[in-house]
Design brief:
The complex is a heterodimer of chains A (111) and B (115). By secondary structure, chain A is mainly β. Chain A is built from no helices and 11 strands. Chain A starts with a strand and ends with a strand. In chain B, the strands form 2 sheets. In chain B, strands 2, 4, 5, 6, 9, 10 and 11 form a 7-stranded mixed sheet that branches. A 4-stranded antiparallel sheet of chain B has the order 1-3-8-7, with no helix packed on it. In chain B, strand 4 and strand 5 form a beta hairpin. Classes of the chains: A mainly beta (111), B mainly beta (115). At the A-B interface, strand 4, strand 5, strand 9 and strand 10 of A face strand 9 and strand 10 of B.
């Protein structure tokens, strides 16, 4: 059974810092890995999608990497801003096309 | 309206009540999903519909009854719920379930409290 773990559960950093969020999964048989952002009490917004054959994806200040063989992904946020404060969720699409989510990392960027 | 909308945004109900959650997508997608997000637990997939047909029921109790009259609308009918069913219920859509290059688009959710 696929399990997705995110570390740390919460993170507080001063504005301007570069930071890394971690995601690990137990079964490497995935179609893709996705990072989402969730603001309090809101739905999810897709940030990046990495196909299983890819190693990384970039969007603006965000860069996500995927090492399928080791079951790991990282989300790198450069020059963090208070507006980046949110919960970041990692999800893998498993062999039956279902998204399996981690519990998320709650990020606070202090002004 | 654009994207995925959900109504109501907040709902309080007693254990003997019957209520329905509504989801509508304006993206021309063919697949729709219900997820449950409980405090301190990962999002859990509940149901998947593809071209109005249910293709996934993730061992959800029968007190949750989904309905998909067309590819744009999805309902979740609730009856005799338990307090542990209190959660954020999220609806999502995607072009088709097996499109691995496409993400899912989520609505804002319905915050449900069962008393």
């Amino acid at each position: 059974k696929q399990e997705v773990t995110q570390i740390p559960a919460a993170l507080s950093v001063p504005e301007g810092e570069n930071l890394v969020l971690n995601c690990s999964f137990t079964d490497s048989a995935i179609y893709n890995l996705q990072w989402f952002r969730q603001d309090p009490g809101k739905g999810l917004t897709s940030l990046l999608l990495i196909q299983s054959s890819q190693r990384e994806q970039t969007s603006g200040r965000l860069n996500a990497s995927l090492d399928k063989s080791s079951g790991r992904s990282t989300l790198y946020i450069a020059a963090s801003q208070p507006g980046d404060s949110a919960t970041y969720l990692c999800a893998v699409m498993d062999s039956s096309y279902k998204l399996i989510f981690g519990s998320g990392t709650r990020l606070l960027v202090r002004p | 309206e654009t994207g995925v909308t959900q109504t109501p945004r907040h709902l309080v109900m007693g254990m003997t009540n019957k209520k329905s959650l509504k989801c509508e997508q304006h993206l021309g997608h063919n697949a729709m999903y219900w997820y449950k997000q409980s405090a301190k637990k990962p999002l859990e997939l509940m149901f998947v519909y593809n071209f109005k047909e249910q293709t996934e029921n993730n061992s959800v109790p029968s007190r949750f009854s989904p309905e998909c009259p067309n590819s744009s609308h999805l309902f979740l009918h609730l009856h005799t719920l338990q307090p542990e069913d209190s959660a954020l219920y999220l609806c999502a859509s995607s072009p088709e379930p097996g499109r691995t290059i496409e993400t899912q688009y989520f609505g804002p959710g319905t915050r449900l409290l069962v008393l």
